[in-house]
Structure formats: C-alpha cells, structure tokens
TrEMBL record:
Keyword Cytoplasm: yes
Matching InterPro entries: ITPase-like_fam (IPR029001), Maf-like (IPR003697)
Chief location: cytoplasm
Native source species: Phytopseudomonas seleniipraecipitans
The name this protein goes by in its record: 7-methyl-GTP pyrophosphatase
One GO CC term, this protein: cytoplasm
Localization, UniProt: Cytoplasm
Cofactor(s) named in the record: a divalent metal cation
Length: 192
C-alpha cells in the first residue's frame, strides 16, 4: 500500500482526512492559484487540485497524493476567502436569502506512475435571510476570514443556513471524503 500525502496546509482538510484512520503526511504545495482568463469555476478547482498534487510528486515519489481546492459561487461570481471583516460582511450580505454553490476539486495522484483521478463535487448552501446584526454577531464569534464563503459550516456557520443539498457534507468543509474513499479504492486502498 502506498503512503498517503495531503497536499494542503489546511487544518480543516487534515482533520477530515484523519477521520479515515489512515496514516498520512501533509505538505503545503507551492503553486500559482490565480484564475485564468475565461476559466470556469469548475475547471479552476479541478486544475488547482491536480496541480497541488503534482507539486509534491517529486518530493513524495512513492505515494498517493491528495490535492483539493474549493471555490464558492454566488450568482455566477466566484467568492474567494475574504481575509478580513469588511469582505466577509459583504459576502454574507450578498448571500443572504440566496444559494451559494461550493465546488470542491479533488485529485488523487499516484506518484509512482503519474496516474491521476480528478473530480469536482458540488454542494449547495441555501442561506436564511440575514440581518446586518446577525452577520456582525456571527463574524465576531467565529472570524471565518480564511474560509471561502465567509463561514465555518463545522461551527456556528450552520446557524446561517436555511438548508443544504449535496452528496457529501464534508465537501463543504473542503475534502469530499465519500468521493475520496472511492478514488482510494480504485487505487488499491480499502477503507475500512
């Protein structure tokens, strides 16, 4: 069995991957994450997930490398990580009463032979109608400035939702475990 490597420094993705009870290493890939002109959101996350895995292939030459990337899409526009209160407030205000689709790109690279499985898993969040005060209280409570869409679904962010839909709630946090287990099975790793 090949060793697993997570091509991410995200503590959220590391926590999710640890649920599979497989030993793994992690390393931060160094890639240009800029969106290319005319590139769709789905193509962007697929490309970045694969590039993250490929960026570690030389360093981890006998491994299965997991790459993942995520964007939030609202009214056809890609929402990035807000990085500060002002942007987070603007994102949540724009999402109030609307639906935001999270696209999570997932790649599993076998660095021994260069084969790579790539997919994109969508997950939609339907937001409640939010007041400026609710948004402010939420942002002060969780400070989700490193999260696409400006909330932490695994925390208090759930209080902002009317409903959700998708095949794997883990994809909302950044690593679609159901699809990853299928990819690992194809690569010869059985879980459990």
């Amino acid at each position: 069995m090949s060793s697993l490597v997570l091509a991410s420094s995200s503590p959220y993705r590391r926590e999710l991957l640890s649920r599979l009870r497989q030993p793994f290493e992690w390393a931060a890939p160094s890639i240009d994450e800029a969106r290319r002109k005319g590139e769709s959101a789905e193509h962007l996350v697929r490309r970045l997930a694969q590039e993250k895995a490929l960026a570690l292939a030389e360093r981890f030459g006998e491994h299965l490398i997991i790459g993942s990337d995520q964007v939030a899409v609202l009214d056809g526009q890609v929402l990035g990580k807000p990085h500060d209160y002002r942007r987070a407030h603007a994102q949540l205000s724009a999402a109030s009463g609307k639906s935001v689709t999270f696209l999570t790109g997932l790649a599993l690279l076998d660095s021994r032979d260069g084969s790579c499985q790539v997919d994109c898993i969508p997950y939609t969040v339907h937001f409640r109608d939010l007041t400026a005060e609710q948004i402010e209280r939420y942002l002060k409570a969780e400070e989700p400035y490193d999260c696409a869409g400006s909330f932490k679904a695994e925390g208090l962010g759930i209080s902002l939702f009317r409903s959700t839909e998708g095949s794997d709630v883990n994809s909302l946090i950044g690593l679609p475990l159901i699809r990853l287990v299928e990819m690992l099975d194809t690569a010869g790793v059985q879980i459990p």
